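Hello,

Our lab assistant flagged a job as stuck in the queue for most of the afternoon. It eventually completed. Since we weren't sure the result was trustworthy after the delay, we are filing this so someone can double-check. Below is the sequence as submitted and the structure that was eventually returned. Let us know if re-running is recommended.
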Amino acid sequence: MGTARDRIRSAGARALSSALILALAGCSSRPPTRAPTGSTVLETGPGHVEGAPLPDPTLAPTNRDVGQQLELTIPLVGGESLQLSQLRGRVVVVELTATWVERWPETYAFYNRMITTYGPEQLAVVVVVLDNERSALSPEPGTRGPGFELGWDPQGAVAARVQAAALPTVIVLDREGALVHHQGGGPTGATATLEGRVRELVGAHGSPGSP
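-- returned structure --
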């Protein structure tokens, strides 16, 4: 028997998977990509053959290509919305996740440290939580300072727009809003890879913390 927390995570995962399947039902499927041997998951896009392999979610977590301009409206937890275009001029990290994802408790500390290192004038972070219940976000696992926005998307609309294949899915945009990096799941070294890409992008503009 699993713990109560394990059962809650499992129920949350099933609920979110169902929501994403419904949200993706009307979206065009991503271009076919070879998945690792034995990797089989369900795809709901037109023309899909049930049981056919999907892209490896750690290598192809979204249908958006590197270099593509990303225009999204993020529903924020306070009820307002945020256009990603409002963040132009800064490097932007968007993470789609849920409170039952294993690394959720460390999410705030990780991104707060990055923002402190580079400054909110250089780096913006948008974490979008896909939990069904608003109560799952209370209390939050930390304090969000300037440059750190929290989105709440219980319908999975944002995940559907980018056809996210894993949680967490992380997307990094350059200062012009073009996608420069994405990664899915939590493979070993994922955070180091993300930090390296952000460091490169901020450093291309100026020294960390400088306006």
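-- support follow-up --
The delay was a queue issue, not a problem with the job. The result is valid. The helical segments are 4-24, 104-118, 157-162, 190-203. The two ends are 53 Å apart (CA to CA).
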